[in-house]
Amino acid sequence: MSWVGWVAVAAVAVALAALTVAAVLWRQGQELRARLGRTAAGDEASGDHPARDPHHRGPLVAVVANPTKPDVAGLRIAVRRECAHQHLPEPLWYETTAEEPGTAQAREALEKGADIVIAAGGDGTVRAVAEALVGTGVPMGLLPLGTGNLLARNLDLPLSDQQAALHVALTGVDRTIDVGWLRVLRHGATGDGTPADDGRAGADEHGTPRTDDHLFLVIAGLGFDAAMVADTDEQLKAKVGWIAYFVAGIKHLHGRRTRVHVRIDDEIGTTTRLRSLLIGNCGRLPGGLTLLPDAVVDDGWLDLAAIDTRAGVAGWAQLFGEVVLQGVGVRNELPAKIGRIDHTRARSVRVVVPAGEHVQVDGEVIGQVRELSAWVDPGALVVRVPG
Coiled-coil ranges per the record (predicted)? Predict the structure, then answer.
């Protein structure tokens, strides 16, 4: 082939190479423009969220929120934005209803592969979400939006800074804690004063909680404390917060003492009269009060406090002094006291109240009860706490 032919072949080859490079560059430009278009559309829809790397798969976050709490819509935007900043998948979002307070939503989140479930609401929402997560190993984050925020308070979580609480939920460390269970064995009087069904519900052979089993994370109680919760005015609570509980408690200062029969673990039972019996997993309350100073949320024990007063207001005044002092580590061991708190601990407890009494779990009244049992479930729940 002459040199003219070789030149012609080379020219054709160069032309083909140039066309190939041009085609590749055109295709890459089209893909780049498409990606930029998708990013802009995503930013516009989500409020200028940073673009996520489609190949990066972080933990899937689910939020179970109580829509009756203030600015839940703004909270949803904040959660999406924070997940985007941390290059996490789009979070799952569920809202509670009166019929489904959070347990069903949390279980659906688990079925969809959630790696962390955040309870955004008050103590009732936290209890409901925790019931679904018990025994799963999936951590529960907390965005405290309620009046008491009892578990968040005992875990030293931010109570008034939602952004800080969200940061802990997404980036904190996992801590395994105990949970308590309370089972109603015999109900008390119904609303019209007639005795309720005394039959004991049959055990679930699959081990799932029965309808008369109630999880608690902080404190269950019967007597004065439950009656106080039952009579708390919801409108006043919305205005002044936890102080509304103390206002309701004033109405019960002159209430009757309750006769109860208590059996701790395998010991012989004892019968006594008292104002209130508390069964706690941890014991810090709003207002800086500590009812159960020895309670530790992950020690495998329930802490019990038998509260009694005599002599009317004077007895309650001494009792309040006892609570304040024990909160700072001072115990009054004098035997003759008109207001007293007696402490012990147990793995399980059984209580019989012949006359029936109100019972509450973490601030939720479950009705009048004449017989109940309670036990600790050690290390059953994982929660997200500050690192």
Answer: none
| Plot region of 178 (φ>0 → left; ψ -120 to 50 → alpha; else → beta) | beta
Question: How many Å from the N-terminal Cα to the C-terminal Cα in the chain?
Answer: 78
Residue 321 scores a pLDDT above 90:
no
Instruction: Provide the b/e sequence for 25-38 (b: ≥16 CB within 10 Å).
Output: eeeeeeeeeeeeee
Share of the chain above pLDDT 70, in %: 66
Q: What would the mean pLDDT of 190-205 be, rounded to a whole number?
A: 42
Please check whether residue 252 lies inside any domain of the structure: yes
Q: Is the domain of 222 the same as that of 363?
A: yes
Query: Tell me, what amino acid is at 202?
Result: G
Residue 2 lies in a domain: no
For residue 104, the domain's CATH number is: 3.40.50.10330
In a domain, 332, yes or no: yes
Q: Which residues pair with 384 in a beta bridge?
A: 174
Q: Which of 136, 171, 206 is the last residue of a domain?
A: 171
Cβ-contact 69, 37 below 8 angstroms: no
Residue 70 shares a structural domain with residue 129: yes
Torsion of CA 266, 270, 274, 280, to 10 degrees: -10
What pTM value is reported for the model? 0.77
For range 55-63, the mean pLDDT: 82
Q: For residue 323, which of 359, 361, 296, 284 has the smallest C-alpha distance?
A: 284
Higher pLDDT, 237 or 5: 237
Chosen domain end from 119, 137, 171: 171
